Amino acid sequence: MSAVNADLLFQPIKIGGKDLKHRIVYAPLTRSRAINNVPVPQAALYYSQRATDGGLMISEATAISPEAYGLGPHTPGIHTVAQVEAWKPVVKAVHNKGATFFLQLWHVGRGSHNDFQPGGAAPVAPSAIGITDKWEVYTTKGGPYKYPMPRALTEAEIPGIVEAYAQGARNAIAAGFDGVEIPAANGYLLAQFISSLTNQRTDKYGGTLENRARLLFEVVDAVTEAVGASRLGIRLSPFNKFLDCVEPEPYDTYGYIIKALNKYGLAYLHMVEPRVLGLLDVDVPEGETLQPFREAFDGPFIAAGGFKPDTAAEAVGTHAADLVAFGRWFLSNPDLVRRIKLGAPLTKYNRDTFYTQDPVVGYTDYPFLT
Ligand SMILES: Cc1cc2nc3c(=O)[nH]c(=O)nc-3n(C[C@H](O)[C@H](O)[C@H](O)COP(=O)(O)O)c2cc1C
Fold first, then answer.
1. What is the pLDDT of residues 302-337, one digit of tens each?
2. Of 106, 134, 152, 370, which has the fewest CB atoms closer than 10 Å, so is most exposed?
3. Where does the NADH:flavin oxidoreductase/NADH oxidase N-terminal domain start and stop, copy by copy (predicted)?
């Protein structure tokens, strides 16, 4: 990669009132090291290794309530005092390096298992429609297991979910985070409400597009009221196929959502490229592109998924994105920002250690440039 290209990634930009010095974002990455759902002390080292002066980082998906957990074991939460206290030194370590840090607020909906749920209950979802056996779930008891049939949330339960997002946002700010990211993406609860294939409700949260997006906007209203729009970013993945949460009309549906998001003055919109399916690279299906969404959004736009340093610089250079988030390459290159600046080679990630509970191996032991 030429030095000129890399320079494109080192232009300043303002995000949610924060002055960033470069365009390389740490993408949200679940690491399954939060034993019993509380961040471990090594998380401070892990995140601070990847923090840079004037950089933006987004935390791993963090559960907003006891019902919000799923996909795999030992993911963190932000709904208990112990969790808020455990996040504080992690945030402090990131701030000490001069980075801005957003917490990703998470509810997996049907992407869960009875083992995660209070009292062994069924996971909750917009409708009682299960995830097919194509996907597997691991719990603290083992796995792989099939995803169980979820139960449909009652209308009366929905205000509690909205409030859990708002309280999660308040708790994140109390822990020191600069803001929160809400994923209506990756087949998590809010995306399950948006897709007509996973949401077959007949109340005001189902049916029309406006109804299917209602929960997202109730959450956005509540969180902006709780912590302010400049502290909220939204993540969307219109072309997602993970957990069978497919959007049949991606352009119409997400075009409508983005137009409606414009009125808030959010910190940013963060979108996932069609070339990744969950954690895997796939060929881009014909005609799938983020470009119309990028053009429709009025604020800072982060693109994620399958970027390398040269394609990231190209995306910023051609204004396809304002910032680029790196997932796997940031996981395995704690000094990714420096390596990109220098054009240095990258260390390959090891998938086998993505989700182990080891506090060192595959977590804090990836090498720095010497
Ligand atoms: C180990 C791992 C964990 C992930 N965890 C999350 C997560 O917690 N929340 C989320 O929105 N996306 C998550 N993702 C998706 C990434 O944020 C990103 O979109 C994806 O890895 C594609 O970017 P990349 O090609 O730069 O890796 C995860 C990906 C990986 C590899």
1. 999 999 999 999 999 999 999 999 999 999 999 999
2. 370
3. 9-345
In whole angstroms, what is the distance from residue 34 CA to residue 43 CA? 8
Count CB neighbours of 338 within 10 A: 13
Atom of ligand 1 at shortest distance to CA of 181?
11
The answer to whether residue 188 is catalytic is: yes
Catalytic entry in 147, 188, 268, 366: 188
The structure tokens listed for 193 are 């409400």
What is the total residue count of the chain? 370
**27 CA: nearest ligand 1 atom:** 17
Q: pLDDT of 31-52, one tens digit each?
A: 999 999 999 999 999 999 999 9
Reported as a single tens digit per residue, the pLDDT across 73-90 is: 999 999 999 999 999 999
Q: Are 28 and 344 a contacting pair, CB within 8 Å?
A: no
